[in-house]
Specification:
alpha+beta, 6-stranded antiparallel β-sheet, 6 strands
C-alpha cells in the first residue's frame, strides 16, 4: 500500500475494505494484529475515532501497515478541499470524493449483489448485514475502503458522526 492516496481520474479496483464496528468505548488492542500500533494511527486519533467506531481485526498485513491512516488522511484532505459528498444508495450511506461517487455506488451494488466478484483481500459482509440484519454481524455496521478512500455504513448514527468529524455537509 502506498503511503499517500491520491485523487485519480478513475477509481482503482477495490480490494481492501476495513470493517468498522459499533464503538465500545475503547479500542481493541488486537484490531491491527502485529503491524504498526493502532495500524499507524496516533493515540489521539484512536481516541477521537473510538467514539464513532472501532476497527475490526482483518487478519491480513495489508490492513496493519499504514493503509488505514492513508485512507483517513486522504478523506480529511479531500474534505478540506470541499470535494467530499455523502449520500445513500440501496439503504447504504456513503462518504466519498465527489468525482468517485458513481464508482462508489457501483462498488456498493457489487458488494450487495456478489461480494466475491470484487476479489477482496478480506470478507466485507455488507450483503449479509443488509439482507439478514438480525442474523449476521450486528456489530459490523460501517466500512472504510482503503484503495480509493471512502466510507460506507448501514448505521445512520455512525454515518452522521463520521460526516461531522470530516465536516461533510
Amino acid at each position: 500500500m502506498e503511503e499517500k492516496l491520491l485523487l485519480r481520474d478513475h477509481m482503482r479496483c477495490t480490494r481492501l475494505i476495513q470493517r468498522l464496528e459499533k464503538p465500545i468505548g475503547r479500542a481493541s488492542p488486537f484490531s491491527f494484529g502485529g503491524g504498526l500500533k493502532n495500524g499507524g494511527l496516533s493515540k489521539e486519533a484512536m481516541d477521537v475515532l473510538g467514539d464513532i467506531f472501532n476497527f475490526d481485526y482483518m487478519g491480513s498485513s495489508e490492513f496493519e501497515w499504514g493503509a488505514v491512516p492513508a485512507a483517513l488522511n486522504f478523506i480529511a484532505e479531500q474534505s478540506s478541499l470541499k470535494t467530499i459528498v455523502s449520500g445513500e444508495t440501496q439503504g447504504v450511506f456513503y462518504i466519498c470524493p465527489q468525482s468517485y461517487e458513481t464508482g462508489v455506488i457501483a462498488v456498493i451494488k457489487a458488494l450487495l449483489d456478489d461480494e466475491h466478484s470484487l476479489h477482496l483481500k478480506g470478507w466485507c459482509g455488507l450483503s449479509d448485514r443488509v439482507n439478514h440484519p438480525d442474523e449476521y454481524n450486528q456489530d459490523k455496521v460501517g466500512w472504510l475502503e482503503l484503495d480509493n478512500g471512502f466510507f460506507f455504513f448501514v448505521d445512520k448514527d455512525m454515518f452522521e458522526k463520521t460526516k461531522a468529524l470530516f465536516e461533510v455537509s
